[in-house]
Design goal:
10-stranded mixed beta sheet, 2 domains, AtuA_N, Alpha-Beta Plaits, 29% helix, Acyclic terpene utilization AtuA family protein, 8-stranded antiparallel beta sheet, alpha+beta, 21 strands
């Protein structure tokens, strides 16, 4: 405790989603940062990985990124913090990362160190009891309060942790922390708050570091950046030789993704960036001062993310070059839909068409009046409760593009759809069922922290 400055390296905006670039990482590691921190998950990947309890990222890439960080952090004797393990932060993904760390320690003969981990999954019955007792599970982003029907339709739920389980683990003496689902900024903010820095600086540090080199120019992902903080400011520096952190790149990154670009809601309050001052500190560094943190008093609320199973899913592709067919593509799709409905009038299924190249853009839903596109790609997806039905509706929906009955077509003169002759089974379909908050008595209530020793 009592550091005048704190330096945190962020090597990757989403650990393992694509491999960390080693060059800039080693440049940053050579400066001996105080913490190695990285976020490893996001709901940007959609509801499928959470529902299926699997990764969206390749395991070798995740192993690679964890190994880079672990070896550097253990060599230098400083903490390493990972949030949202394995993309979703489910219990199995946390266990996977713990096993990877254990394997790396054995592989490299690392001396004993303390590894803390916490889970984030929430039992549906925990929420059901609260709801039956009259508690509201409040919706976010215009969602209504959670209903029992929505809860029943949910396959898997994770709670989104704030800084609290990480701080608890650091207080327990953890050298490495593997976290379940976590608010991105809190992975970094927890280290700063633990070290005694004010919340406004800590949370801004998390916001600017969470996506690593996305706050740099020119654009280049998976490069390392370092945040250097005092009680009064944050300085963020690009490690890649070709990048720098500028007023424009850092301010732009801080303000993206939100309806109100100046506010970021984090655990326990709101980060207010409306009065932030940005200045160019040196060629590769931007300095930020005057972020504000507005604490939210009273009830402690934790965000919940839930994913529910929709059905088995298949995909087919159709390519079209005939100008007349392109001009009448909406009628073609209507015909294909009608043929599926004719064969399966009472079956429950979903059939979707995504058109690439229509009006020069992807997925334009307006009818074509005039187009310069010379070819279209139609992606057909069918979803149903079982594989057999899902496969058939997709196959019919794809092949009937070729058989569409358009006016003015004589014989086969106008048909010109190239159809791949098979459809492919892809991941099951899931939907977001839960974007809500639950009230808790203790911010650690849903995030039990465990500690083990690893190494020789």
């Amino acid at each position: 405790m009592g550091k005048e400055t704190l330096r945190i390296i962020s090597p990757n905006g989403h650990l393992g989603f694509a491999p960390t670039k080693e060059g800039s990482f080693y440049i940053g590691a050579a400066t001996h940062p105080d913490y190695y921190c990285c976020d490893s998950g996001s709901d940007d990947i959609g509801p499928v990985p959470l529902g299926m309890d699997k990764c969206a990222s390749h395991p070798d890439w995740q192993y690679h990124d964890l190994e880079l960080m672990l070896l550097a952090a253990r060599e230098q004797g400083v903490p390493m913090i990972i949030g949202s393990a394995g993309d979703t932060g489910t219990n199995s993904r946390v266990d996977m990362y713990v096993d990877m760390i254990r394997d790396m320690a054995k592989k490299h003969g690392l001396k004993k160190f303390k590894l803390a981990y916490f889970y984030s999954e929430v039992d549906k019955e925990y929420l059901r009891r609260k709801m039956l007792a009259g508690e509201k599970i409040e919706g976010l982003n215009s969602r209504s309060d959670l209903t029992i029907e929505e809860l029943d339709a949910t396959t898997r739920i994770v709670a989104v942790a704030g800084v609290h389980p990480f701080i608890k683990a650091l207080e327990m003496g953890a050298d490495v922390i593997i976290g379940g689902r976590t608010s991105d900024a809190c992975v970094f903010a927890s280290a700063a708050i633990y070290e005694g820095f004010p919340e406004n600086i800590a949370y801004y540090t998390g916001k600017v570091l969470e996506c690593a080199s996305f706050c740099c120019e020119p654009y280049g992902a998976k490069e390392s950046v370092i945040g250097t903080i005092t009680k009064d400011d944050v300085k963020v520096t690009a490690m890649a030789p070709f990048q720098r952190c500028t007023i424009a790149s850092v301010a732009g990154h801080a303000m993206y993704e939100r309806t109100n670009p100046y506010y970021e809601y984090v655990a326990g309050g709101c980060l207010d960036m409306s009065e932030c001052k940005y200045e160019q500190f040196d060629e590769k560094t931007c300095r930020i001062t005057n972020p504000k943190f507005i604490p939210i008093d009273g009830r402690i609320k934790v965000k919940l993310e839930g994913s529910g199973f929709v059905g088995k899913r298949y995909m087919g592709l159709a390519g079209i070059r005939d100008p007349y067919t392109i001009q009448n593509i909406d009628k073609v799709i209507d015909w294909a839909r009608s043929q599926v409905a004719e064969r399966h009038p009472n079956d429950k299924y979903e059939l979707s068409y995504r058109i690439f190249g229509k009006n020069g853009v992807m997925g334009d839903l307006e009818p074509i009046k005039e187009t310069k596109s010379h070819e279209l790609l139609v992606v057909v997806e069918g979803v149903a409760d079982d594989d057999k039905l899902a496969e058939e509706v997709t196959l019919i929906g794809m092949r009937q593009i070729f058989y569409a009955r358009l006016p003015e077509v004589k014989g086969t003169a106008g048909t010109a759809a190239f159809i791949l002759d098979e459809v492919t089974k892809i991941s099951d379909a899931y939907t977001w069922t839960m974007d809500h908050t639950v009230e808790v008595d203790d911010p650690l209530e849903l995030f039990p922290v465990s500690m083990i020793e690893i190494g020789e």
